[in-house]
Amino acid sequence: MSEPATVKVNPDFTGGKTIRQIAAEIGVSRQAVHQKRKSKELSATLQPFTSIVNGAVYISADGEALIKKAFASSGYQRVEANKAATVESSVYGVLKATIDTLQEQLVVKDEQLAAKDAQIAEITSALLSAQQTVQAAQALHAGTIQTQLRNSSNRGIFSRVFGKRNRNAKPDAKMDT
To answer: Helices (DSSP H) in the chain: which residue ranges?
Structure first.
């Protein structure tokens, strides 16, 4: 069987709160309250306001007031304030890292856009050159067509269709035989 729980009862003790409850009210850790309770300045003073029941430390309302006063006079920071500062600091760190990453990406994108602009300039130049070449070829072809039309327009339609070929041309070899 298990041994009976240790009970240390103070005759002047009437109810009270646990260290955890006091720590939650003050906004500090339970370890901080425990250390403050064991400190030189409060150890002897809190003895009449403290009782241990089943391993749990209970402190009366008067003892609670002494602990709160000790924390107030020492300028001890609240856990919530520390947590808020820590959260704010970590959020700031994350945001700063994100901003730095985005700025680096922006620099890379700017370089990529500059490269694309250079490619577009090269392609535009090549396209203009190709257009000029096509226009020159079209002009040459149009000139050739016009020359052919002028040479053939001296002859009438029947002579062009049924007429003799060029007079200076040599007759075919079969016709001579």
So the answer is: 19-26, 30-38, 40-46, 61-74, 79-153, 157-162, 173-176
Specify the DSSP class assigned to residue 53: E
Domain boundaries, the chain: 7-76
Tens of pLDDT, residue by residue over 116-142, are 999 999 999 999 999 999 999 999 998
Q: Phi and psi (nearest 5°) for 6?
A: -75, 130
57 vs 151, more confident = 57
- Averaged over 25-33, what is the pLDDT? 85
CA-nearest of 68, 37, 31 to 50 is 37
Q: Domain 7-76 belongs to what architecture?
A: Orthogonal Bundle (1.10)
- Residues 27, 78: contact at Cβ < 8 Å? yes
The edge-to-edge listing of strands for the beta sheet with 17-18 is: 7-8, 50-53, 56-59, 17-18
Output the six-digit token pair for 34: 């425990």
| Closest by CA position to 30, among listed 39, 17, 21, 20 | 20
- Comparing CA positions, the residue from 111, 26, 122, 142 lying closest to residue 74 is 26
Q: CA nearest 47: which of 90, 80, 7, 12?
A: 12
Q: What is the pLDDT of residue 5?
A: 40
